[in-house]
Amino acid sequence: MKEKSELRPSLRSAALRLDAAEQAAASAHARSLLRRQPVWSAARAVLFYAPIAGEIDLTPLIQEALAAGRAVALPGFVPAAGVYAAFAVSDLARDCAPGKFGIREPRPSCAPIALNRLDLALVPGLGFDPFGQRLGRGAGFYDRLLAGVDGTKCGVAFDAQIVARLPAETHDIRMNVILTPTRWLAVSQSVPAQP
Q1: What pLDDT sits at residue 11?
Q2: If you average pLDDT over each of 6-10, 98-102, 161-165, which comes out highest?
Q3: CA 109 from chain center: how many Å?
Q4: Dihedral over Cα of 10, 140, 176, 23: its sign
């Protein structure tokens, strides 16, 4: 979709405008805000993501979740199927290695976790809107992964990556909530027609 392709560079640069100290501070604020949410407290199985440059870093919460007895998963690529699935991790250094796109992924020895078992999926994106629409990197991997998740889908981004409206396609999976360093945004359930 042309509109999505045109939006990606500006939203990517919005996140990258923050220097390392600003990104670290914003990530700490986002983690603090997430800790105060009932959905975080209640979640028994959480899908995290391995952050890359320009993404909020929620990694410190992985150890907290494990210490609380929660199941923790990361997306891992399944070459035979050409899709991502969720795999359990208990030690990032031992259980993970660079994957398909150079992003940290669970090693093949990690056990899969059924997507419908996840209570909370933390989802990065280049942009989000108040209606739960997400703009990803364009390959559709997260949409296919999230299609099997029954739990809360939480988009995670810097404040500058929240826009008034994103273009949407029928296969796009909507978020239930959006987390930024300053906001916990419950999305509007009614989506107006595309302009």
Answers
A1: 77
A2: 161-165
A3: 23
A4: negative
Q: Is the pLDDT of residue 105 over 80?
A: yes
Cβ atoms of residues 70 and 46 within 8 Å: yes
The string of pLDDT tens digits covering residues 1-60 is 557 777 777 777 777 788 999 999 999 999 999 999 999 999 999 999 999 988 999 999
Helix (H) or strand (E) holding 27: helix 20-35
Which residue, 39, 36, 43, is CA-closest to 66?
Answer: 43
Question: Token match 């909370």: residue?
Answer: 120
Domain at 2-186, CATH homologous superfamily: NagB/RpiA/CoA transferase-like (3.40.50.10420)
What is the strand order of the sheet 184-186 is part of? Answer: 83-88, 71-78, 45-47, 120-124, 152-156, 177-179, 184-186
Helices vs. strands in the chain: H and E counts, helices first: 6, 11
Q: What global pTM score does this model have?
A: 0.92
Q: How many residues are present in the chain?
A: 195
CA angle 38, 175, 111 (to 5 degrees): 75
